[in-house]
Write a structure and sequence with these properties.
Organism: Thiothrix caldifontis
Strand content: 25-35%
CATH architecture: Roll
Oligomer: single chain
CATH topology: 2,3-Dihydroxybiphenyl 1,2-Dioxygenase, domain 1
Largest sheet: 4 strands, mixed
Number of strands: 8
Pfam family, one: Glyoxalase
Protein name: VOC domain-containing protein
CATH superfamily: 2,3-Dihydroxybiphenyl 1,2-Dioxygenase, domain 1
Radius of gyration: 15 Å
Distance between the termini: 29 Å
Strand order of the largest sheet: 1-4-3-2
CATH class: Alpha Beta
Number of helices: 2
Length: 132
Amino acid sequence: MKANPVGWFEIYVQDMPRAVAFYEAMLETKLENLPMSDPEAWPDLEMWTFPMSDCDNPTYGAAGALVKMGGCPSGGNSTLVYFSCEDCAVDAARAAANGGSIFKEKMSIGEHGFIALVFDTEGNMIGLHSMA
Protein backbone atom coordinates (compact mmCIF):
# COMPACT_ATOMS: atom_id res chain seq x y z
CA MET A 1 0.00 0.00 0.00
CA LYS A 2 1.19 3.53 -0.75
CA ALA A 3 1.82 6.06 2.04
CA ASN A 4 -1.41 7.93 1.19
CA PRO A 5 -3.89 5.14 0.39
CA VAL A 6 -6.82 7.45 -0.36
CA GLY A 7 -6.50 8.54 -3.96
CA TRP A 8 -9.83 10.33 -4.43
CA PHE A 9 -12.92 11.31 -2.47
CA GLU A 10 -16.43 12.38 -3.41
CA ILE A 11 -18.93 14.32 -1.31
CA TYR A 12 -22.45 13.86 -2.67
CA VAL A 13 -24.69 16.93 -2.72
CA GLN A 14 -28.21 17.92 -3.80
CA ASP A 15 -27.79 21.68 -4.31
CA MET A 16 -24.50 22.18 -6.16
CA PRO A 17 -24.39 26.01 -6.14
CA ARG A 18 -25.06 26.05 -2.39
CA ALA A 19 -22.47 23.33 -1.71
CA VAL A 20 -19.79 25.00 -3.88
CA ALA A 21 -20.39 28.33 -2.11
CA PHE A 22 -20.13 26.64 1.31
CA TYR A 23 -16.84 24.83 0.64
CA GLU A 24 -15.26 27.81 -1.13
CA ALA A 25 -16.14 30.06 1.84
CA MET A 26 -15.18 27.58 4.58
CA LEU A 27 -11.86 26.53 3.01
CA GLU A 28 -11.11 29.93 1.42
CA THR A 29 -10.44 28.29 -1.95
CA LYS A 30 -11.95 27.98 -5.43
CA LEU A 31 -13.52 24.80 -6.77
CA GLU A 32 -13.38 24.04 -10.48
CA ASN A 33 -16.06 22.50 -12.68
CA LEU A 34 -14.98 19.11 -14.03
CA PRO A 35 -16.58 18.60 -17.45
CA MET A 36 -17.72 15.08 -18.29
CA SER A 37 -15.97 13.34 -21.17
CA ASP A 38 -19.30 11.80 -22.27
CA PRO A 39 -22.19 14.01 -21.05
CA GLU A 40 -24.78 11.92 -22.90
CA ALA A 41 -23.81 8.85 -20.87
CA TRP A 42 -24.05 10.81 -17.59
CA PRO A 43 -26.74 13.48 -18.17
CA ASP A 44 -27.44 13.99 -14.47
CA LEU A 45 -23.80 14.10 -13.27
CA GLU A 46 -22.12 17.33 -12.17
CA MET A 47 -18.70 17.52 -10.48
CA TRP A 48 -16.69 20.38 -8.97
CA THR A 49 -13.14 19.53 -7.86
CA PHE A 50 -11.20 20.81 -4.92
CA PRO A 51 -7.72 22.20 -5.74
CA MET A 52 -5.38 19.36 -6.63
CA SER A 53 -1.93 18.72 -8.01
CA ASP A 54 -1.40 17.21 -11.43
CA CYS A 55 -0.17 13.65 -12.00
CA ASP A 56 3.29 14.85 -13.05
CA ASN A 57 3.79 16.86 -9.86
CA PRO A 58 1.93 15.14 -7.01
CA THR A 59 1.72 16.66 -3.54
CA TYR A 60 0.65 15.33 -0.16
CA GLY A 61 -3.03 14.46 0.24
CA ALA A 62 -5.89 13.16 -1.84
CA ALA A 63 -7.86 14.88 -4.58
CA GLY A 64 -11.64 14.95 -4.60
CA ALA A 65 -14.85 16.56 -5.78
CA LEU A 66 -18.39 17.53 -4.91
CA VAL A 67 -20.72 15.30 -6.92
CA LYS A 68 -24.39 15.64 -7.83
CA MET A 69 -25.77 12.48 -9.44
CA GLY A 70 -29.26 11.08 -9.69
CA GLY A 71 -29.92 8.28 -7.20
CA CYS A 72 -27.03 9.31 -4.90
CA PRO A 73 -28.39 11.18 -1.89
CA SER A 74 -26.27 13.40 0.32
CA GLY A 75 -25.88 13.03 4.08
CA GLY A 76 -26.17 9.93 6.21
CA ASN A 77 -23.16 8.18 4.71
CA SER A 78 -20.43 6.48 6.69
CA THR A 79 -17.41 8.15 5.09
CA LEU A 80 -15.73 11.01 6.91
CA VAL A 81 -13.34 13.24 4.98
CA TYR A 82 -10.89 15.39 6.94
CA PHE A 83 -9.69 18.67 5.45
CA SER A 84 -6.29 19.99 6.59
CA CYS A 85 -6.25 23.57 7.83
CA GLU A 86 -4.14 26.00 9.88
CA ASP A 87 -6.60 26.13 12.81
CA CYS A 88 -9.64 23.88 12.71
CA ALA A 89 -11.56 26.20 15.07
CA VAL A 90 -11.33 29.00 12.49
CA ASP A 91 -12.56 26.75 9.67
CA ALA A 92 -15.36 25.37 11.88
CA ALA A 93 -16.52 28.93 12.61
CA ARG A 94 -16.50 29.68 8.87
CA ALA A 95 -18.56 26.52 8.29
CA ALA A 96 -21.19 27.72 10.74
CA ALA A 97 -21.14 31.24 9.26
CA ASN A 98 -21.79 29.87 5.77
CA GLY A 99 -24.84 27.69 6.37
CA GLY A 100 -23.25 24.63 8.00
CA SER A 101 -23.20 23.71 11.68
CA ILE A 102 -20.64 22.60 14.24
CA PHE A 103 -21.09 19.08 15.60
CA LYS A 104 -17.93 18.98 17.78
CA GLU A 105 -15.88 22.07 18.59
CA LYS A 106 -12.08 21.94 18.28
CA MET A 107 -10.68 19.18 20.48
CA SER A 108 -7.22 17.80 21.08
CA ILE A 109 -6.16 14.46 19.67
CA GLY A 110 -2.87 14.56 21.56
CA GLU A 111 0.37 14.54 19.61
CA HIS A 112 -1.65 14.36 16.37
CA GLY A 113 -3.06 17.87 16.72
CA PHE A 114 -6.70 18.92 16.82
CA ILE A 115 -9.95 18.13 15.05
CA ALA A 116 -13.40 19.65 14.71
CA LEU A 117 -16.46 18.03 13.16
CA VAL A 118 -18.98 20.04 11.16
CA PHE A 119 -21.99 19.48 8.93
CA ASP A 120 -22.01 21.07 5.47
CA THR A 121 -25.09 22.58 3.84
CA GLU A 122 -26.03 19.18 2.38
CA GLY A 123 -26.09 17.25 5.68
CA ASN A 124 -22.67 15.63 5.22
CA MET A 125 -20.42 15.46 8.27
CA ILE A 126 -16.83 16.46 7.50
CA GLY A 127 -13.74 16.65 9.67
CA LEU A 128 -11.26 19.49 10.01
CA HIS A 129 -7.70 18.78 11.17
CA SER A 130 -4.93 21.12 12.27
CA MET A 131 -1.73 20.85 14.25
CA ALA A 132 -2.41 24.10 16.12
